[in-house]
Design a protein that fits this description.
It contains two helices and nine strands. It has 172 residues and is mainly beta. The strands form two sheets. Strands 1, 2, 3, 6, 7, 8 and 9 form a seven-stranded antiparallel beta sheet that branches. Strands 4-5 form a two-stranded antiparallel ribbon. The protein is rod-shaped, with a radius of gyration of 30 Å.
Length: 172
């Protein structure tokens, strides 16, 4: 930041003795991060959750369009004799999730200050904060032991972007 001071010479007079004008920039937060979660699961698969949800929803007409219906359309869930099933119900899959985040919260400031007769000191600040947050995650499951003749792997990618700006005012 930078501050410019405009002061009157000291001559024992009442009134405005001077004022200051400032400009600043602050980085409040950085969202730069990378997380990797990985392991072998011999208990369940993500497809187990899809199967449970499909059974609860009943027919394909009632499938949630963002989860169960996508799994149905990708042939992760199938039906035989009116019964839903998945290939890797008991797990035995390698699972991996990678999450990359980026962005920050920044604020630009304009400040004013003044001195009246060395008795009253006033100040005001105008802030203009901005936020940007981006998250990209990739979830993968693989049949590393070649248990299923039909299922090899699945991958789900999700992207999230959040942006915003605002205004604040402080006086003292």
């Amino acid at each position: 930041g930078v501050v410019f001071a405009f002061n009157r010479p000291k001559i024992n007079e009442n009134g405005w003795q001077g004022f200051q004008l400032g400009f600043g920039y602050n980085r409040h937060t950085s969202f730069e991060n990378r997380t990797i979660i990985e392991g072998f699961n011999n208990q369940s698969s993500l497809m187990t959750q899809y199967l449970d949800q499909a059974i609860a929803e009943g027919s394909t007409a009632n499938f949630d369009p963002f989860t169960t219906l996508l799994a149905w359309d990708a042939f992760l869930i199938d039906q035989s004799g009116g019964v839903y099933f998945v290939d890797m119900y008991t797990g035995n899959v390698n699972q991996r999730k990678e999450i990359n985040t980026s962005g920050n919260i920044n604020e630009y400031n304009i400040t004013f200050g003044g001195n009246y007769s060395d008795m009253l000191y006033l100040g005001a600040s105008f802030g203009f904060p901005r936020v940007r947050y981006e998250e990209e995650s990739t979830y993968e499951e693989t049949d590393a032991q070649n248990i299923s003749p039909y299922f090899n792997s699945l991958q789900i990618k999700q992207n999230l972007t959040t942006k915003g700006s605002g205004f604040n005012f402080k006086i003292g």
